[in-house]
Amino acid sequence: MNAYETINDILVHLFNEIWKREEEAIITEEYKNITNNDMHIIEAIGLGEENTMSVVAKKLGITAGSLTTAVNSLVNKKYVVRKRSEQDRRVVYVRLTEKGRKAYHHHAEFHRQMTKAVIEKLDETEIPILLKTLEGLAEFFRGYEAKSKK
């Protein structure tokens, strides 16, 4: 296999592999009542005091309606609390409960371990090359998304 074919093969399979391994690592006995998607919503809500539903939906690239369905489930499972703005009743704030914060840290630990595993394989001169490569890949996906919305 030449370099192009090898890179293509890795890219094609890497996303699904990460998703599968992440789910295996983070959906433990303690978190068996939520999904990998739920964990990413928890991550998008973040550790700050409050975020609006529209900000979280935008971070995730989903509609407010889709987020509402997922947040309803997370509220019922006590990972998230929701509160309407007293100034503007159309604005809804969400924040993580203590249980949600614990799940956030659990998920972040998987990401820390994954990133560490990559960096440990590189010497100091290779890290900037990896960063440049990943930035190029991210740029491609952002450009692809922008083209598909036209």
Automatic annotation (TrEMBL):
Signal peptide region: none
Cellular localisation: Cytoplasm
Major place of residence: cytoplasm
GO molecular function: DNA binding; DNA-binding transcription factor activity
Record-annotated HTH marR-type domain positions: 1-139
Keyword Transcription regulation found: yes
Homology family: Belongs to the SarZ family.
Protein name: HTH-type transcriptional regulator SarZ
Species: Mediterraneibacter hominis
